[in-house]
Design goal:
7-stranded mixed beta sheet; Rossmann fold; alpha/beta; 192 residues; 36% helix; binds S-adenosylmethionine
């Protein structure tokens, strides 16, 4: 009951922040549990390694990861919006919430997890970002990932929001979720 109230507070806050800064928020509503379940399925590669989530928003995806059985202490959420980061810290106290920029992961993540991250899940609005920012974020991700790690990104277009070839990445479509507002497609990117 408390968790539900907490989540609906988060949804209201998310909508308010999206009205203030639509390009940065990049969505009209938090992600659905159906989208969260698909991402959680591909994020949980083992029981121990850290998982980094980019763009925590109101914590909808984080809650799905936890619901899928992922220990919240393994999850590191990066959120650029200070108000949302403060909310996330109080709503999901067992998770590691970091107020910061996804393009600076090497600086803002704890040093002990650098090079050990097998999955990064991202709800960042890549499509709204200039190519230079997209590049900084992807480089920052692959710099801190374990060898063979994967970057999972959902996007509201059926097409990939990342030009995989330009970054020497291999892309794979993991699925499309129609029960999301708007419908979303999940892509996985890996580096050979
Ligand atoms: C589409 S929302 C994510 C929603 C959330 N994952 C969910 O499950 O509902 C995108 C989030 O990314 C955050 N964001 C945008 N650019 C960012 C950046 N460079 N670094 C970290 N967070 C960023 C926004 O503030 C926003 O909260």
């Amino acid at each position: 009951m408390y968790a539900q109230t907490n989540a609906s507070l988060g949804t209201k806050l998310f909508i308010l922040r999206a009205l203030r800064n639509p390009r940065q928020l990049g969505a009209v509503a938090p992600s659905s549990r159906h989208l969260g379940a698909l991402l959680a399925k591909y994020a949980a590669v083992d029981d121990v390694s850290p998982i980094v989530e980019l763009g925590g928003g109101s914590g909808s995806l984080t809650r799905s990861l936890i619901k899928a059985g992922i220990d919240p202490a393994r999850i590191y959420v990066i959120e650029l919006d200070k108000t949302l980061a403060t909310y996330l810290r109080s709503a999901l106290p067992q998770t590691n919430i970091i107020h910061g920029n996804a393009s600076e992961l090497g600086k803002i993540l704890p040093s002990e997890i650098l090079g050990k991250v097998h999955r990064i899940v991202s709800g960042l609005p890549m499509i709204n970002m200039p190519e230079s920012v997209r590049r900084q974020i992807l480089e920052s991700c692959f710099d801190i990932m374990a060898p063979g790690g994967a970057y999972l990104q959902y996007t509201y277009s059926p097409r990939s929001s990342i030009d995989a070839k330009a970054y020497q990445l291999t892309k794979k479509r993991l699925g499309t979720i129609f029960l999301n507002l708007p419908p979303a497609t999940v892509w996985q990117y890996t580096k050979e």
